[in-house]
Structure formats: structure tokens, C-alpha cells
UniProtKB/TrEMBL annotation:
Family note: Belongs to the AGR family.
UniProt cross-references to Pfam families, sorted A to Z: Thioredoxin_7
Name this polypeptide is given: AGR3 protein
Keyword ATP-binding: no
Xref: InterPro entries: AGR/TXD, Thioredoxin-like_sf
Keyword hit for Signal: yes
Amino acid sequence: IMLHSTLALSLLLIAVTSNLAMAIKKEKRAPQTLSRGWGDEITWVQTYEEGLYQAKKSNKPLMVIHHLEDCQYCQALKKAFAENEEIQEMAQNNFVMLNLMHETTDKNLSPDGQYVPRIMFVDPSLTVRADITGRYSNRLYTYEPQDVPFLIENMKKALRLIQTEL
């Protein structure tokens, strides 16, 4: 009887520890890898193609953010973007959102070069909005942290243009 209960206890212990290990592993996982720090509450699409599909299906504009992990300007913009409640709320509710760390094959997304950070809007009609630009003539689609109010205006413009053009 002694041997039997020791065996049962060992098995129980093994079961508990493996469950615990799994629970710990789950806990460690980042809340949402697709956000890459741009906003964990936002639902992000994984690819440009998926973004286009969702934009067409939902009749929402697609917002494409090109950035790189080791770019200090991207990091600064990301922080301002993630901390701004108005941007986060609009991004959650009114846009299909995509952030990319590589270039797409769509040349329309780099009309004036492949620099980062670069934010562009694509209409649900799948037209890249080359008319929604930032404040800098040398890099039309770049934004700096202090340009957040300007980015908010451009997000509103992207939403307005859909309503007037359909």
C-alpha cells in the first residue's frame, strides 16, 4: 500500500508541475505581438493583403505604418502614437490597422521613397491616398512626435474622404 500511494503522489506532483509550467509560459507571452508597441488594444492585421481585404470588407480606411525596430525616430513616434488616446480610439474603431517592418511590393506605398517612419492611408476602394501627407516636403508621409495633432487631422481626413466619395 505504501508503494502504491507514493507512486500516486509522484504522478500527481508531475501533473501539477507540468500544468504550472504551462500556466507560467502562458503568462509570459506578450499581450499582442502584432502591435509591436503601437497599441495593444488595437486589432492589427498581419499583412498588406489582409489589410486591403479588411478595408474593402469593412468599408474602413487602411492605415499603414512603416517602421523599423532600431530607428530612433520610429521609436519616438511609436511612443507618442501609443500614448495618444484619440489616435488609439480612432485606430481601434474606424481604421483597419497595419504596422510593417518590411517594404511591401506595392510601389504606391512608397511614392517618394522607402524611408521610415512612414504612414499612409488606403481607401476602402483600395486607392492609396497620396493626397494625405504630413508636414515635410522632403518626406511626405513621415511624422514626428510633435506632429501627432497633424496625424489626427489626417486620420479624420481619411475618414471624411470615404464618406464624401462613396
